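Extended Data, record Translocon-associated protein subunit alpha
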Amino acid sequence: MAVRVWLSAFLLAFLLAFLLAASPFAQVARAQSEEDAAMQEVVDGADLGYVGDDTPVSSEEPLSPAPGVETVCVFPKNAGKIVPAGEETELLVGLQNEGESNLNVVAVHSTLHLPYDHKMYGQNLTVQSFYNASVPVSVQATFPYTFAVSKFLQPGAYDLVGYIVYEIDQHPYQNVFYNGTIEVVEVGGLLSVESVFLITLGIALLGLLGLWAYGQVQQLSKKTKKGPKVELGTGTTDANMDEWLEGTAFAKDKAKKNK
């Protein structure tokens, strides 16, 4: 019985660790179908421009989106939006022009923010420019964008804001193609240091609980093995036993000895 209790505690600890470790993969699986559908919508009818060198994009005042221009963002083969620190991450920016004039895509850039305060910049990421990237009216186009966060960035959740800058009749416009959370992790692993610590702590607590249960079962087993003591001797024999032996040769011999 003690062995069964110990095995049950061990299996429970293993199951808890597996569920904690598998939670990021479950989120990826749930989002995969939606991302695949968006990818198909973006790639169809794509008119890719030429990817040039990184150049700064500046403006004295914030740019607004042009009427009829819609954007969408897809992380190919990375539905969980997991970004290894110090390594390049690729995403696709889909743009649909339903306006009245052709547009020319100038550049794609993004910024990293702390999740609790967008005014605090975590990092200004790559600015990627495009040349001869014209999108006619009623056409969808896809533009690849590659960025990398600093390898010294603390692992955790951050907010990524991505912008695509374009011109219509030599007038600049800008759309936000992504404004959401990404998970920055250390290179070589999908789990952050905090996640590993929590998993280890949970296993340790369950192990201690199993040892405590094992000790309780051991004490209970020792108590059940000890039977009631029966004392035999002069003056301590049970009265029921005297009645049961009454009339036998043993009782007559005992009476003679007592006399």
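Summary. The CA atoms of residues 112 and 180 lie 10 Å apart.
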